[in-house]
């Protein structure tokens, strides 16, 4: 009966997943259908606009060329008309001179004849007919303004839509997610020498499988990629997955998108649990700062046993606030000299990594992990349920690893940023220089309960970086360290 129920439950899960997949596919089809109904008329409008522009160019060229012919004809007409007028005047003068010469032949008087002959000779020398060029200044040939548009006509007859590149293919096997960097590789299905560049689009999502049309996050774009690979570095992995797609572009148009791929980008994300923080701590989602004015004006103080054996500093009672309740459940706010705040997300298995940076001139702070049931007066490193490194820059400087009220002084300088690596499966808590990935200290412990990130700060502040993968350098070091079977911690035996 139980096995049948389990089998039926698996079938139900499969059917539910298939229904969700079909629903997403139908949304994709509906989105594509709506896109076709919008894009088809737009394509017609764009084509009409292109032809209108082409017609406009042809009309303008026609008018320009016709004007050129008219100007050439007017110029030739003017030149030939001028020559014709000059020739007519010369002809009239020549006819008159010819008649005068013929009449001179009939003169009998020798002196009169000599005088007339000399006059005719002089007139012939100066006659316009003999000074005119007998070559037309223009011809009637207009062949130099003829047009042959056979080649252009063929080009027009060969008008086609733009050659659009084919969709690239993302090579999932060559894609890599490492050190908060995602490297994407793709190829073209066929060689295309006309491709100018590629466009990569990506978005974060918490849904596995094909991208959803109605995803809550927008696509982000990386343009003008000249190669068939690209790396997105410095990412914060605050989602379980990321979708990727690529399109190729030539000088004319962008092609279709590649089939999208989804890559897993899980990482440990958490913030400060403001409901647990000491009243002297001002807590934001990714930062905590000491606030000496915090909680002032509260007249009620904790008395009796709660303060016995402690410094005697009055500690305000827990009061109601408007801050969101902790994800891990309700608990008392830290008070007294426990200037502590916990993370809002617990860890019960796996490997996790986050980084902490102290603000300038921070006098004292601790970074580590704790069980969730840490008492409200308990201080990090002073119980057997907390593990931390403590930095003190006030009066006498110290740098130490603390657990169960015992401390081990640490060598070296305090890094600007501390990386925390928690491996619950192998029972390790390690601290690193976040910049150089140099190991600072390692605790060995069999964690019997889920743990949460824990922080103490006094006279200063801390900033928190989450959504980070375990760095590859840390993984490599841990493999080497575990292979050697050693640890640099002298507090291992105290981890309970």
Automatic annotation (TrEMBL):
Alphabetic keyword roster: Coiled coil
Annotated B30.2/SPRY domain residues: 280-473
InterPro entries assigned to the protein according to its UniProt record, in alphabetical order: B30.2/SPRY, B30.2/SPRY_sf, Bbox_C, Butyrophylin_SPRY, ConA-like_dom_sf, COS_domain, E3_ligase_FN3/SPRY, FN3_dom
Stored SMART domains: BBC, SPRY
Domain Fibronectin type-III residue range list: 164-268
Compositionally biased region (Low complexity): 310-325
Lineage: superkingdom: Eukaryota
Domain COS: 105-162
Biased composition (Basic and acidic residues): 298-309
Region (Disordered): 288-334
Listed Pfam families: fn3, SPRY
Record protein name field: FSD1-like protein isoform X2
Source organism: Salvelinus namaycush
């Amino acid at each position: 009966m139980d096995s049948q129920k389990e089998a039926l439950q698996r079938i139900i899960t499969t059917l539910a997943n298939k229904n969700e997949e079909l629903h997403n596919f139908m949304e994709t089809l509906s989105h594509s259908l709506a896109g076709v109904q919008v894009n088809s008329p737009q394509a017609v409008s764009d084509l009409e606009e292109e032809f209108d522009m082409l017609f406009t160019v042809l009309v303008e060229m026609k008018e320009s060329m016709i004007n050129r012919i008219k100007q050439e004809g007017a110029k030739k007409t003017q030149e030939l008309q001028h020559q014709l007028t000059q020739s007519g005047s010369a002809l009239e003068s020549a006819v008159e001179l010819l008649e005068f010469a013929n009449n001179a032949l009939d003169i009998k008087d020798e002196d009169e004849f000599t005088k007339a002959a000399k006059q005719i000779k002089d007139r012939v020398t100066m006659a316009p007919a003999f000074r005119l060029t007998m070559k037309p200044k223009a011809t009637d040939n207009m062949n130099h303004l003829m047009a042959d548009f056979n080649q252009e006509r063929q080009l027009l007859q060969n008008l086609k839509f733009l050659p659009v590149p084919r969709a690239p293919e993302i090579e999932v096997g060559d894609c890599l997610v490492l050190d908060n960097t995602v490297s994407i590789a793709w190829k073209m299905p066929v060689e295309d020498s006309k491709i100018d560049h590629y466009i990569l689009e990506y978005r974060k999502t918490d849904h596995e499988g094909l991208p959803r049309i109605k995803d809550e996050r927008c696509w982000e774009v990386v343009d003008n990629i000249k190669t068939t690979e690209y790396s997105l570095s410095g990412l914060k992995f605050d989602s379980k997955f990321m979708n990727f797609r690529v399109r190729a572009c030539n000088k004319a148009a962008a092609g279709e998108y590649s089939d999208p791929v989804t890559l897993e980008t899980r990482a440990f994300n958490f913030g400060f649990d403001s409901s647990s923080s000491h009243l002297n701590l001002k807590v934001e989602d990714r930062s905590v700062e000491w606030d000496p004015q915090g909680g002032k004006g509260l007249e009620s103080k904790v008395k009796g046993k709660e303060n016995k054996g402690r410094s005697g500093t009055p500690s305000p009672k827990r009061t109601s606030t408007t801050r969101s309740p902790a994800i891990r459940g309700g608990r008392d706010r830290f008070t007294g000299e426990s200037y502590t705040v916990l993370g809002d997300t617990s860890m019960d298995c796996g490997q996790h990594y986050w980084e902490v940076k102290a603000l300038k001139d921070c006098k004292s702070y601790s970074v580590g992990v704790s069980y969730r049931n840490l008492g409200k007066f308990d201080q990090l490193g002073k119980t057997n349920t907390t593990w931390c490194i403590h930095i003190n820059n006030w009066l006498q400087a110290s740098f130490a690893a603390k657990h169960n009220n015992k401390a081990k002084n640490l060598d070296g300088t305090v890094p600007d940023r501390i990386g925390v690596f928690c491996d619950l499966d192998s029972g390790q808590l390690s601290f690193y220089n976040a910049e150089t990935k140099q190991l600072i200290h390692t605790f060995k412990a069999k964690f019997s309960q889920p743990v949460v990130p824990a922080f103490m700060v006094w006279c200063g502040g801390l900033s928190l970086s989450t959504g980070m993968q375990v760095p590859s350098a840390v993984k490599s070091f841990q493999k080497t360290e575990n292979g050697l079977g050693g640890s640099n911690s002298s507090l291992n035996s105290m981890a309970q």
